Amino acid sequence: xxxxxxxxxxxxxxxxxxxxxxxxxxxxxxxxxxxxxxxxxxxxxxxxxxxxxxxxxxxxxxxxxxxxxxxxxxxxxxxxxxxxxxxxxxxxxxxxxxxxxxxxxxxxxxxxxxxxxxxxxxxxxxxxxxxxxxxxxxxxxxxxxxxxxxxxxxxxxxxxxxxxxxxxxxxxxxxxxxxxxxxxxxxxxxxxxxxxxxxxxxxxxxxxxxxxxxxxxxxxxxxxxxxxxxxxxxxxxxxxxxxxxxxxxxxxxxxxxxxxxxxxxxxxxxxxxxxxxxxxxxxx
Length: 284
Fold this sequence. Notes:
CATH architecture of the domain at 4-155 and 182-208 and 253-268: 3-Layer(aba) Sandwich
Structural class: alpha/beta
Order of helices and strands: EHEHEHEHEEHEEHEEHEHEHEHH
CATH topology of the domain at 4-155 and 182-208 and 253-268: Rossmann fold
Strand order of the largest sheet: 3-2-1-4-5-7-11
Shape: globular
Radius of gyration: 19 Å
CATH class of the domain at 4-155 and 182-208 and 253-268: Alpha Beta
């Protein structure tokens, strides 16, 4: 039987899984809102669907696996808003369903450790919307759902080097602030490992082994480039957008033991040092 992934919101993280599955003769149907992005999907071997807009019934009928990368829209999940009954009616058809969430569901832990059993106490509206979306997907009977809580994502095109080079990078310092992060390639590896060994109901944190203050990452990027380390700016004095400032409302270290012990994943980039070195090597 042909294995077919229907990927809603087929963007940056989903593309990391695409790179693994397409060489294994999977069919991938990916939704996008943009005609230009649809053309790019088709050029890579993904069947594009402009959605919302397209009738998704034929794609749902073909799908053996679902991936949901769309973020909540006005507090609710856009895929379930449009297609919950259709998905629920086919729950037994799918071998695997993956929902990409965020470690923001855990809220602020003052730099302490969290794992998948930590109570969900989100500190932001985005985090609360993700908690609601997770619960809505979990409520569909018989759906082989797997939730992946992603830390801060970086990778090709999403590294700190451009801002360091053009002088706009800032080392914003907030006492005790620490973030976990993940290279996008490791997201793809975790998703592929889960598809190989489904465990419906499972929740996985996806992050590296090295939670660190954000100013340290900027400093290391500057060192790799041989450029001056940007001056430190205290958080209370920094000019930031409300969105940027909201990221500093939460400080925590995220444990990733489950992706290793249950899925057998060996991270390509277990810390930001190895990840940034690889990014720079790719650029060069």
